[in-house]
């Protein structure tokens, strides 16, 4: 096909040139050469007439007109002069040579000689007819008729024509070759220009569009960007996100393409209890809380570490299981890790290295070479799993969290056309803090394999972009928040994560009923003010600072002793790590100390429930409480705060929230505190405990509106809409690329 197009591009101009030559150039050339020769012959006739004039005049004067005949006979010995005749003043023929045609009288000869090309066709060939007046007294009015052989003109014309045809053919070939080359160059230039524009490259990048496209390029690029920005701003205003809207977005903008989620933590664990019974457990994880409803809405495949003790007993031959149990809405693919892999990748590099590094929570990160090697190895294993689960070559892959910083680039190697959305659930520190990581460049390069890289807040995006700026040779476009590295563009955007807002009748017990149950269970007096904290048992959550604030509250406002109870639910987590064990022990001993200091018979101010609570139990606790305390020292978002708000459909209850949690940027009607400031937090607890119902309602109603609108479907919807827009741009670019590789066809060229 390609050769045929090339041949056509060559042959068409060649044939055109030859046709033009045949129809126009050759006849024109013939006429021209004939005229040139006719003019030549006229001059020659005049010369001959001049030469003979005197001799004829003399012969006439002497009355020896017979000499004229011999004069003529001598003259026609010239090979080109065929015949000659003398015409009198009245047009009568006085003399003629032998070869002069009898039929050609003097009048006819004069008529012919007046034509542009005076030509007469004889049996012997064509002759030129020239009539020249003679000068002299005795030949006044007489004229000479000269017939010149024109066969040499025909011969020369043929020669000229041959040369001309040769020249035209050569010209045709040259024109055809030039056409091929120019078309090639200008098409490639045009295409690369357009591709550059479509990729959103600036005019100052190495791959410049050709000069003639530059004004057009910048105009198109600016318009495209404006439209994209406008579109994204418009999408930000869209309200009413729910599973149906998300599903329809997947169908319209992602054409129902396959969605694959990758996370370390799985959404459902099968655990075998001591009595041999197997239970299905939902882990305490903000990530799972957020991603699970999205997966239910869009089906697809979730790839995660199979960490439950009975997980292997519940998968098929491909290590897959349909979940949620009972409704089977999507597929969970479990990846098995050895003890060593889990130790190096999860406990080591992820939780002893990246976790404290990103949280800047005064726990020193530990970076071991062996952990790093295992982290790389496990990321490779998950990349293989993604490639194995992908049904086509361009799935939408949602990579979750700091366990998989290298995964985006690894997936990109295996599936270059995949759309990779990476979401970093934890904070991103400033460049100086991140700079202590020995493998910072590798981590950044791995993450920049993503099409879209999401953080909870603009602040984390800014930190990430600055970190890249310090560590890599990358092109950063702040205006559009993009980073181009190795010709690959990544959009760095903030997508505040959220929860699945409970709509309609949830069948929850009333607030009074929940309060009664919880108070009974914990043995609390009816007038107790109940404050709760619900966290993984993690040093970043500010549990210690919270306890200090409770202690200070009881010290500063002694009236609360006996009336104020703080319940901390602390889900066991990462207890294989020394840092966590030490922290958990410390919390236990501080709890004991406060209880010893302020406790009374039947009253303990702090209740530490260091065990896993399922969603229903946590919800019941939230509905029973008067206050929810979230005092993270550094937190990407913190979904506990949003879940508390969602649980309070009575529009009562007060949220005390750390300014260092991403959620503080959205939930400004909470009582915002600096958890490191014990006094401030204790005062906030007092204010919360004494807040009038009307103020509680006003604050809670506003918080509920915010969380309801900014729910998890909006989080996923904004990200997937950006992915859809990106995929559309890629498809256009791929189409242009295809044309570049396969040469433009007639239709494309004319389009
Ligand atoms: O906060 C980061 C995060 O990965 C969350 O997304 C998740 O809620 C939590 O950590 C779970 O930690 P782990 O899986 O180690 O128990």
From TrEMBL:
Its EC number is 2.4.1.15. Keywords: Glycosyltransferase, Membrane, Transferase, Transmembrane, Transmembrane helix. It comes from Ideonella lacteola. Belongs to the glycosyltransferase 20 family. The lineage of its organism: Bacteria, Pseudomonadati, Pseudomonadota, Betaproteobacteria, Burkholderiales. Pfam families: Glyco_transf_20 (PF00982). Gene3D superfamilies: Glycogen Phosphorylase B. GO terms for molecular function: alpha,alpha-trehalose-phosphate synthase (UDP-forming) activity. This is Trehalose-6-phosphate synthase.
């Amino acid at each position: 096909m390609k050769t045929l197009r090339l041949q056509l591009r060559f042959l068409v101009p060649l044939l055109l040139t030859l046709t033009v030559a045949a129809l126009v150039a050759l006849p024109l050339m013939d006429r021209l050469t004939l005229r040139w020769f006719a003019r030549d012959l006229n001059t020659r006739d005049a010369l001959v007439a001049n030469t003979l004039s005197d001799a004829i005049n003399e012969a006439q004067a002497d009355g020896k007109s017979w000499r004229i005949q011999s004069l003529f006979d001598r003259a026609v010995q010239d090979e080109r002069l065929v015949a000659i005749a003398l015409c009198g003043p009245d047009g009568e023929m006085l003399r003629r040579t032998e070869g002069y045609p009898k039929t050609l009288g003097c009048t006819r000869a004069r008529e012919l000689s007046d034509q542009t090309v005076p030509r007469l066709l004889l049996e012997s060939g064509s002759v030129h007819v020239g009539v020249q007046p003679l000068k002299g007294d005795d030949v006044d009015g007489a004229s000479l008729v000269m017939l010149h052989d024109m066969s040499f003109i025909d011969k020369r014309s043929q020669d000229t024509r041959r040369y001309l045809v040769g020249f035209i053919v050569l010209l045709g070939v040259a024109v055809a070759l030039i056409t091929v080359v120019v078309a090639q160059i200008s098409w490639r230039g045009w295409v690369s220009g357009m591709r550059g524009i479509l990729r959103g490259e600036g005019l100052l990048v190495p791959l410049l569009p050709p000069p003639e496209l530059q004004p057009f390029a910048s105009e198109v690029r600016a318009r495209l960007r404006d439209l994209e920005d406008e579109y994204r701003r418009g999408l930000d205003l869209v309200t009413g996100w729910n599973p149906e809207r998300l599903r329809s977005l997947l169908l319209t903008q992602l054409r129902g393409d396959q969605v694959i989620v990758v996370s370390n933590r799985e959404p459902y664990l099968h655990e075998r209890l001591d009595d041999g019974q197997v239970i299905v457990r939902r882990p305490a994880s903000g990530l799972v809380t957020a991603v699970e409803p999205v997966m239910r809405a869009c089906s697809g495949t979730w790839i995660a570490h199979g960490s439950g003790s009975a997980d292997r007993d519940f998968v098929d031959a491909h290590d897959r299981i349909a979940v949620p149990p009972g409704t089977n809405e999507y597929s969970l693919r479990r990846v098995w890790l050895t003890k060593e892999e889990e130790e190096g990748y999860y406990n080591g590099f992820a939780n002893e290295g990246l976790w404290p590094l990103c949280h800047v929570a005064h726990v020193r990160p530990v970076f071991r070479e062996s952990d790093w090697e295992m982290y790389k190895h496990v990321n490779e294993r998950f990349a293989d799993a993604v490639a194995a689960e992908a049904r086509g070559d361009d799935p939408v892959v949602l990579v979750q969290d700091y366990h998989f910083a290298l995964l985006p680039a690894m997936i990109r190697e295996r599936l270059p056309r995949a759309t990779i959305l990476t979401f970093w659930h934890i904070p991103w520190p400033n460049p100086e803090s991140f700079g202590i990581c020995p493998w910072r460049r590798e981590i950044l390069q791995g993450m920049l394999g993503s099409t879209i890289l999401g953080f909870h807040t603009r602040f984390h995006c800014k930190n990430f972009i600055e970190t890249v700026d310090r560590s890599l040779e990358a092109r950063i476009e702040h205006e559009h928040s993009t980073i181009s590295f190795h010709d690959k563009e990544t959009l760095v955007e903030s997508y505040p994560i959220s929860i699945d807002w409970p709509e309609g009748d949830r069948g929850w017990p009333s607030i009074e009923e929940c309060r009664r149950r919880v108070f009974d269970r914990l043995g609390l007096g009816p007038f107790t003010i109940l404050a709760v904290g619900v966290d993984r048992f993690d040093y970043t959550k500010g549990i210690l600072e919270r306890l200090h604030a409770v202690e200070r509250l009881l010290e500063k406002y002694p009236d609360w002793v006996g009336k104020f109870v703080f319940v901390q639910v602390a889900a066991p987590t990462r207890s294989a790590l020394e840092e966590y064990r030490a922290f958990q022990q410390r919390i236990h001993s501080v709890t004991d100390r406060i209880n010893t200091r302020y406790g009374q018979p039947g009253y303990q101010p702090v209740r530490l429930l260091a065990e896993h609570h399922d969603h229903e139990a946590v919800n019941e606790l939230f509905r029973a409480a008067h206050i929810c305390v979230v005092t993270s020292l550094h937190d990407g978002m913190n979904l506990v705060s949003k879940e508390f708000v969602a649980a309070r459909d009575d529009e009562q209850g007060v949220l005390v929230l750390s300014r260092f949690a991403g959620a503080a940027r959205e939930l400004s009607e909470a009582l915002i505190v600096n958890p490191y400031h014990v006094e401030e937090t204790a005062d906030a607890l007092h204010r919360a405990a004494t807040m009038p119902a009307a103020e509680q309602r006003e604050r809670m109603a506003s918080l509920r509106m915010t969380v309801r609108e900014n729910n998890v479907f909006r989080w996923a919807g904004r990200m997937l809409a950006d992915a859809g827009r990106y995929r559309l741009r890629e498809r256009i670019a791929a189409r242009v690329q295809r044309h570049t590789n396969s040469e433009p066809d007639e239709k494309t060229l004319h389009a």
